[in-house]
Amino acid sequence: MIFDSLSEVGGQPQMLYPFKKISDIPAYNSINGTALIQNLKSGLPKETEIITNHKVNDIKKNADGFVLDNVVLAKSIIIATGAGAFKPKELPLKMSDEIQKRVHYFIKDPKDFANQKIGVFGGGNSALDLAIELANYANVKIIHRRNEFRGLELNVKKLRSLTNVKILTPYLPKDIQLINNQLDITLKGIGDVQSRHEQFDQIVVAYGFKANNRFIKNWGIELNGTNIAVDPTMKTNIDGIYAAGDVVSYPGRVPLIALGFGEAQIAITSIMRDLFPEKTLTIHSTSIMSKMCCK
Ligand SMILES: Cc1cc2nc3c(=O)[nH]c(=O)nc-3n(C[C@H](O)[C@H](O)[C@H](O)COP(=O)(O)OP(=O)(O)OC[C@H]3O[C@@H](n4cnc5c(N)ncnc54)[C@H](O)[C@@H]3O)c2cc1C
What we know:
Elements lengths: L1 E2 L7 H5 L5 E2 L8 E2 H10 L7 E2 L7 E4 L2 E4 L3 E3 L2 E3 L7 E2 L8 H4 L2 E2 L12 E5 L3 H10 L4 E5 L9 H9 L3 E4 L2 E9 L2 E8 L6 E5 L1 E4 L3 E2 L12 E2 L2 E3 L11 E3 L4 E2 L7 H19 L10 H9 L1
Parallel strand pairs: 1-4, 8-21, 10-17, 11-12, 11-17, 12-13, 20-22
Antiparallel strand pairs: 2-3, 5-6, 6-7, 9-18, 14-15, 15-16, 19-20
Helix pairs in contact: 4-5
Bound molecules: flavin-adenine dinucleotide.
């Protein structure tokens, strides 16, 4: 069973940079975040249960294994919480439910916004990437509180060159209303710049994310700074609990996707050894291993 605190699985590639080209995944020249996650999901065994919108808060050991949040009994656990359960930084405005439906923090498919007027709020790489992708299908205005963007200059140049993109700076959103089926946003000018109103069908907010892994401490897991200390088999200080991905810490580790793939393999092999000590595992073939486990 896979638990994720967000409404979909896929972690940072899916949520933070779905359209960025990733060039360091073995066997792909390059692949974007959404496609990578889609491919990984399509490779899951059909028995895999994915439970989204569930932040695991509590893990208790009993005689049969571990009880997660009083709902699931597991024999072994792999903690792969990355930078932590992350939440988008929200637009700091009062909004009705109807308005909220048109305010997005994640985008799955930019085609969903085709032929619409879209406001993108933010000034970092995510905001610039999203604006570029949306501009393939929609009219886009990108609104940032400073004249300078924090994202790549190359992307700022690209946005400036597109005729269906307008850059509005330096503005802060002050109020949002639904008027004549359009979002009417009051933008407060900063410095000498005059305030103005803009109308959009939908808006995308890319102010970044808050994340933390503090909850892991309550599970009795030994930390190394803010990350989990593991041994070379990816085991934590508790028998039966393993960890993989950006949440782990050991000398020389770098926060990259490919490392997480390898660490997951080590953790799974170690779990198989724990659970089936009487069997001889053929380490070089995962298909043989999965047959052994599931018979
Ligand atoms: C902008 C950006 C660009 C990057 N580009 C690259 C790149 O080009 N190549 C590369 O290799 N790496 C890149 N990275 C790094 C890469 O994204 C990370 O190394 C990778 O996502 C780590 O994977 P993970 O599964 O360990 O954690 P994450 O991707 O952070 O996933 C952790 C998941 O666990 C969930 N979670 C956390 N706590 C709980 C809980 N208590 N209960 C349930 N669910 C929980 C979270 O919601 C999240 O979905 C980039 C990162 C960023 C931010």
